[in-house]
Every structure is written in structure tokens, then in C-alpha cells.
Amino acid sequence: MGSEEPKDPFKGVDWKAVGTELQKDPSSKPVIKKRLPKKMREIPDYYFLPRRSLAYNLGFFGACIAGGIGAGMLLEIWINKKIKEAFSYIPPKFNWDPLLVVMIARIVLYLFCDAS
Fold first, then answer.
1. Which residues cross the membrane (predicted)?
2. What is the pLDDT of residue 23?
3. Distance CA 10, CA 69 (A)
4. Would the pTM of this model clear 0.85, i.e. be above it?
């Protein structure tokens, strides 16, 4: 008579469902709660734009750079041409006559030096 084991009242209890609606009504299905992601990854819009090959990019941007350099050279030529047109008049150089130099020297000596 003493060989019978006492009945375990907690045998077969779903411990995960204790205190939930599943314990009160075992015929209902367990409700799975959906969790929100911890951190939402923000992907930029330009990430999905089509990408070009390396050869295409080198050709396209190389042509843009070469065009910019060529335009700069043409602009420089145009500016130099405008400067030459604006300053094309150069006054003739004055030729010093030796007699004129002697006369100017005598006047300076007479005015600024005491010739007594």
C-alpha cells in the first residue's frame, strides 16, 4: 500500500503559459506577439540607384574634366585678346637729345646750387 507515489498536481503544467489566457482556456491557441525590431536600419535612397562600370565612369568624368580644361584655355585666350585690344596704344618712347640733357642739367645747377 505504501508503494503508490503521491500524485503530482503540477505534472504536465506548461510553465511558460502560467497566468496567461492559455492556462484559463486550454483549447485556445497560444498568441504569438510580434516584436518590433530594436533598431531600424535607415537605407539612403541613392543606395538603390543603378551603378555604372569603372570604364564608363572614367570615360564620362574624364571627358567632363577635359572639357573644363579646354573651356578654361579658350577663356584665357579670349581674355588675353581683350587685354591686347584695350591696351594696344603704347606711347612712343621719348628720345633724349644730348643738347636737351645739357640744358636741363645747367638749369638744375643754376636753380639748386650756389654758383658764387
1. 54-75, 96-112
2. 56
3. 87
4. no
The per-residue DSSP string of the chain comes to: -TTSPPP-TTTT--GGGTTSHHHH-TTSPPPPPPPPPSS-----GGGGSPPPPHHHHHHHHHHHHHHHHHHHHHHHHHHHHHHHHHT---PPPPPPPHHHHHHHHHHHHHHHS---
Q: What is the pLDDT of residues 70-116, one digit of tens each?
A: 999 999 999 989 888 888 776 677 777 888 888 888 888 888 776 55
How many Å apart are CA 3 and CA 99, to the nearest integer? 154
- The three grid cell numbers given for residue 61, joined into one nine-digit string: 568624368
Domain locations along the chain:
15-91
- Sorted by sequence, the CB contacts under 8 Å of residue 52 that are 6+ apart come out as 60
Q: Above pLDDT 90, what percent of the chain?
A: 23
